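User: Please predict the structure of the protein below. I'd like the answer in structure-token form so I can feed it into my own downstream comparison script.

Assistant: Understood. Taking the following sequence of 200 residues as input:
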Amino acid sequence: MLPFFERLNGCFCTDGPLLQQLLLRGLWADVVDDSLPKPQWIARWCELGASGFPFINSPALQRLLDAGVDVHDLTDVVRSAQVLTIYNIAQLIDEPCRDLGYDVEAAPDVQLGYVDEAGAPHLPGSLHDALEELDPAGRHGQPRSLELRQFGGLPGDLQMQLKDLLEKKAWSQAAVLWKRAVGGELAHCLAAMQQLARQL
């Protein structure tokens, strides 16, 4: 048996904080990973759509790809939509009556939780307040910038060189390296490096 679980009333339950962690990690698990140089979710969605899996509009996805939409832009839009969705789900779990039109004073007090064998109630704590902290990307749910996306597409050794220069605040050297790898005007590269340093 897993060490963090205990058997309560014939089923596996957790204490409040662990229940919160399990729910939040489960929500984040379905959000696309935007850190990969080649997004894997697109192939997965195409496979699911071809197999008849519901909910996925694979023809629309294919039309976007055929039209030449940048797969990384598409990934960023999908991730933003998914993060907004899981935030709304977490808020709904925290406050099930929030959007049902009740006045605040008249709203029923309904919360997710469980009761242990001794009859004591356990609540998971606020999910939507803690959601941002568990973002696997470490950005607290925020979209990635273009600079961060471009940085993620660079070879690992070049990423390490840039990180080292940014930690030393060697802006000019980092900008020259960025210009060689990504292109653009040197002034824009310098601004990109200062922006990137705040995000890494």
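That's the full token string. Strands lie at 6-8, 11-13, 114-115, 121-122.
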